[in-house]
Amino acid sequence: MDPATSITRAKATQPTGTCYRVLMWDSCALPAEQLNEWSEQRKELLGRMRDAGIKGARGLLTQLENELKTLTVKLIEEPLALAPRAAFSFARAEALGATLQAHEAVLAYRLGNAAVEVLMQLQGEESVTDMLNHWQAATPGMDWCTAPIVQAMSAAEGTAWQQECSDHAETEVDTPEYTSGEFHHVTVLLNEAVQALQPAEGKVMVDATLGGGGHTERLLLAGAEVWGIDQDPAARAAAGARLAQYGERLHIVAGNFRNAAEILRKRGVQGVDGLLADIGISSPQVDCAERGFSFLHEGPLDMRMNPAAPRSAADIVNTAAESKLADILWQYGEERASRAIARRIVQERAKAPITTTTQLADLIATVLPRKGKQHPATRSFQALRIAVNDELGALEELLHSGLSLLKSGGRFAVITFHSLEDRAVKRYFELVCKPEIDRPEWPAPRPNPAYAARLVYRKPVTPAEEELSANPRSRSAKLRVIEKL
Ligand SMILES: C[S@@+](CC[C@H](N)C(=O)[O-])C[C@H]1O[C@@H](n2cnc3c(N)ncnc32)[C@H](O)[C@@H]1O
Hints:
The structure is a single chain. With about 475 residues, this protein is of the alpha/beta class. About 45% of the residues lie in helices and about 15% in strands. The chain has helices at about 30-55, 60-80, 90-100, 130-140, 155-165, 190-195, 215-220, 235-240, 260-265, 285, 315-320, 320-335, 340-350, 355-365, 380-390, 390-405, 420-430, 465-470, and strands spanning about 5-10, 20-25, 105-110, 115-120, 150-155, 170-175, 205, 225-230, 250-255, 270-280, 405-415, 435, 445, 455, 480-485. Strand 3 (about 105-110) and strand 4 form a beta hairpin. Helix 1 (about 30-55) runs antiparallel to helix 2 and helix 12 (about 320-335) packs across helix 13 (about 340-350). About 40% of the residues are buried. Bound molecules: S-adenosylmethionine (SAM). S-adenosylmethionine binds near residues 209, 231, 280 and 282.
C-alpha cells in the first residue's frame, strides 16, 4: 500500500530576520489548466504591483498583495492540501525529511500528500534554488513543479508559522483493499532466478513482486522463509490462497517495493539472504478488462496496479498538459509520434473525456496507421502504465535500498521486461560492482565509494528456447544478479 504521508517538524532555532516560506509540489498533483490560470493571473498582478511600487501607491500595493495571496490560496494551496496523490511514499518522505532536517537554513517544514512547505532563513551565498536542488536530489523520480511559491516573511510571521508546526503529530494513512477471483500467471525465468538466489532452510528471502507466488513457492519449497510484497490486493489474495500450506514461513505484505527496506525494518527484519524483483505486470492484470491495462479489451482506462492509488491513466490522459503527455509517451514508450498523439488526445478530450481503453487505442490508431504485427497503441499503453505506477521511480528506489537489506553474501536478482528498466538495473549493478572509478581529468583511478557487490553473471540471463515457445510473454525478459560483498 502506498502510505499517504503528512509530516510536520520545527526546529528549536527561531527566525531572527527575513525568512522565506517556500511551497513546492509534484507537478502531476494539480491539473495543468489550474497552474496556467494561476501563472497568468499572478503575472498580471505582479505587473500591476510593480507599477504601484514605482508610483509609490502604498494602499494599492497592499491591496494587490492581498489579492495575490487570496488567488494563490484559492488556486494552488487549497487544492494542493486536498490533492489525493500520495507522491511522498514513506521512504521518500523520510529521505526528504532527513535532507531538510540536516539543512541549517531550514527552520520548519511540512510534507503533505503532494507538496512540501518549508520555512527557511537563507545563509551566506545560499539561494532558494540551491535549496530546491537539495530537495530534488533527496527525492529521485519525483517530478517537481518548476514554479515554486516563494513568500518573504518577517521574523514574527516566521515564528508564528514555526509555532504551528511544532505541535503537529506525524501521521500515516493507509489505503483500502480489494480482491478478485481467478489468477493465472506463468512465472518467467523460474529455474534461473531460483538457482541464482540459492534458497535453503534457515535462509530469509524477500520476493518484492509476489504476484501469483510462482517464484515464492519455489523458495518456500527449498525451505526458505519468505517475505512477499505486492501492491496489488488481487495478487496477494491469490498467492495467499495458493501458498497457505507454508504457514508461518510465508509473510505476505501489502506495499510498494520502493518502500521494501522500511516495510521490513518496521517488522523487525534486519538482514536477508536474497531479494527478488520480477518487475512489471502479471498476466491477470493485463488480461482483466476491468483493470484497464490492455487495448485489446474494452475497459475503464485505469492501469493502476494498486487500485487504491489516487491517479489512473484516465486522470493523466484527461488532465495532463499536451507537452507532459508527449513527454510521457516519448520517455516511457519511446513513441516517435508522441507529439502527434498528444495533440490528438488534447483535441479529443476537449469534446468529451477519454474514459475507456478502446477509445484511446482507436484514437491512437487514427494518428499512427498499423505497420506489421504490433498494434499502434502498444508503446503508448506501455508509457501510460509506467507513468501511472511510477514504475521507473519505484525501481530506482528499490535498487538504491536493496543492497542495504542484504546480508554479506546475499543475492539481489532482478527480472525486467523492457529496455528502460533493464538499463536502470544494468547501470546500477555495474556501479556497485566496480572497485574503482576513473575520470579523464583524474591522474589515477580512485576507490568507488558505492562498491559493495560482485556481478554473479556478466551478461543478463534470458529465457531458453523451450520457455520462449511455451510462453511468448517471456521473450523480452532479462535477469541480472549481484552478490553483496
Ligand atoms: C510479473 S508479476 C510477478 C509474478 C511472480 N513472480 C510470480 O511468479 O507469480 C509482478 C507483480 O509485481 C507487482 N508489482 C509491480 N510493481 C510493484 C511495486 N512497485 N511494488 C509492489 N508490487 C509491485 C505487480 O502488482 C505484480 O503482481
